[in-house]
């Protein structure tokens, strides 16, 4: 119990330090708050099952240090990282085209994919959500059949973060209706996907991602638009809470008969499993195979039996993204990557102060936010797509006009065409 308590206090102290230093609710505060919340949940969950985890202190200290390394981009003052710029009319039009085509892609996907309204049934989700999730992957239901569907689906996945940024750009530029409509479509799309696979975490993190992008642009959003955004946030938050309760009950029983315990375990075991499941017994690594499995052409099934291959015993539990990286690169390799990766991303952000830099920032925020629980294998494809999207945005912004820097400010203004 003592080690789990120390772990939670480390993040609480970090959160207090951050607030005392910046006195601002921003992406860094949101990231630290999320990890602090999970650390506290880990402590209380441990109290309910003290005999299941034989904890040590050093894994918690290692995890906390790795968290600081990987998240140092967000622990800096916002304007030190995102010194945003004024857009030219040509650059504004590029954002418009990206968002218009994204809306088109969402509509095509909703009409043609398996999460169309006609295929959704609350009763079927309640009856056997876990089996539906496995069947969804086994049947590869998301694979499009026509060329148009392949294009729209890939665009929707690759430019998802860009679409959220573009929606808030619209709102900043006074196009409240368009921005709110795009945000609403994004929430609907992600909600339908989450229902289809009976996932509690995916929609939760999407809502947090929307909050993060709002925090980036909040100083530039008109007061009238903030009121509408708050209403949308209340609706989305209420639906999210009801949805998580419904999925929990459908998969694990009524809240007073195991459902509440499963929800508590969901938020409260990732750091414990890293400590007792990975750090205590890891004696071999995948040598990068898990991270680079798409490049080397490795079937994901090869990675399912990690415990017998690596000597670990985490089973199907969450281990945080740090734990997953340790499975691939070991403890020293993970720390080395934590030094290099944020440094490279920060250079890319500073290279493009417009939408490309914000995209890198939001992309990485999304990865590390999910990482409080776990990130899936095949991160190579995610980062390759990130670089492709960043390159497209960088070139488009350079071609369409010279940017004016707002020195010493994180406020954004726009010139309309």
Total number of beta strands: 2
* Low-pLDDT residue intervals, each spanning 5 or more residues: 115-144, 403-417
H/E element sequence: HHHHEHHHHHHHHHHHHHHHE
Report how far the terminal alpha carbons are from each other: 61 Å
Give the class from helix and strand content and strand pairing: mainly alpha
Please state the overall shape, judged from the principal axes of the Cα atoms: globular
Q: What's the overall average pLDDT, rounded? A: 80
Give the spatial strand order of the biggest sheet.
Answer: 1-2
Number of helical stretches of at least 4 residues: 19
Give the tally of structural domains.
Answer: 1
Please give the largest β-sheet. 2 strands, antiparallel
Based on CA atoms alone, the radius of gyration comes out at: 22 Å
Helix fraction, binned, reads over 70%
Roughly what fraction of the amino acids lie in strands?
A: under 5%
Topology:
Elements: H1 2-22, H2 27-48, H3 57-70, H4 78-81, E1 85-86, H5 89-112, H6 122-127, H7 129-138, H8 147-158, H9 160-172, H10 176-197, H11 201-217, H12 223-252, H13 259-267, H14 270-279, H15 293-296, H16 306-310, H17 320-351, H18 355-370, H19 379-399, E2 404-405
Helix pairs in contact: 1-2, 1-3, 3-14, 3-17, 5-8, 5-9, 5-10, 9-10, 9-11, 9-18, 10-11, 10-12, 11-12, 11-18, 12-13, 14-17, 17-18, 18-19
């Amino acid at each position: 119990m003592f080690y789990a308590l120390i772990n939670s206090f480390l993040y609480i102290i970090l959160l207090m330090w951050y607030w005392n230093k910046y006195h601002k609710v921003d992406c860094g505060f949101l990231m630290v708050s999320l990890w602090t919340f999970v650390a506290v949940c880990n402590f209380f969950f441990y109290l309910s099952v003290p005999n299941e985890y034989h904890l040590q202190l050093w894994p918690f200290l290692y995890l906390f240090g790795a968290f600081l390394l990987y998240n140092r981009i967000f622990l800096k003052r916002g304007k030190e990282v995102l010194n945003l710029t004024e857009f030219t009319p040509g650059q504004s039009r590029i954002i418009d085209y990206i968002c218009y085509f994204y809306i088109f892609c969402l509509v095509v996907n909703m009409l043609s994919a398996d999460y169309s309204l006609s295929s959704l049934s609350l009763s079927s989700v309640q009856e056997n959500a876990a089996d539906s999730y496995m069947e969804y992957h086994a049947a590869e239901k998301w694979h499009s059949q026509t060329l148009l569907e392949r294009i729209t689906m890939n665009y929707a996945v690759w430019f998802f973060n860009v679409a959220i940024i573009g929606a808030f750009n619209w709102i900043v530029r006074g196009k409240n209706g368009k921005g709110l409509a795009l945000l609403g479509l994004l929430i609907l799309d992600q909600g339908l996907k989450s229902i289809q696979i009976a996932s509690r975490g995916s929609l939760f993190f999407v809502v947090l991602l929307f909050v993060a992008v709002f925090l980036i642009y909040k100083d530039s959003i008109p007061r009238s638009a903030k009121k509408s955004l708050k209403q949308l946030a209340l609706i989305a938050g209420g639906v999210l809470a009801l949805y998580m309760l419904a999925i929990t009950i459908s998969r694990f029983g009524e809240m007073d008969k195991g459902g509440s315990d499963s929800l508590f375990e969901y938020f409260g075991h990732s750091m414990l499993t890293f400590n007792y499941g990975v750090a205590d017994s890891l004696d071999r690594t995948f040598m990068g195979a898990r991270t680079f499995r798409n490049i080397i052409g490795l079937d994901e099934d090869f990675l399912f039996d990690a415990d017998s291959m690596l000597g670990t015993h985490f089973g199907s539990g969450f281990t945080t993204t740090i734990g997953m990286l340790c499975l691939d690169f070991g403890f020293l390799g993970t720390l080395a990557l934590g030094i290099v990766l944020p440094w490279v991303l920060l250079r890319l952000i500073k290279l493009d102060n417009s939408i490309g830099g914000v995209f890198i920032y939001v992309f990485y925020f999304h990865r590390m936010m999910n990482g409080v629980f776990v990130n899936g294998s095949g991160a190579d494809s995610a980062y390759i797509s990130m670089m492709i999207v960043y390159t497209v945005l960088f070139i488009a912004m350079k071609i369409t006009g010279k940017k004016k820097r707002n020195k010493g400010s994180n406020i954004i203004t726009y010139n309309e065409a």
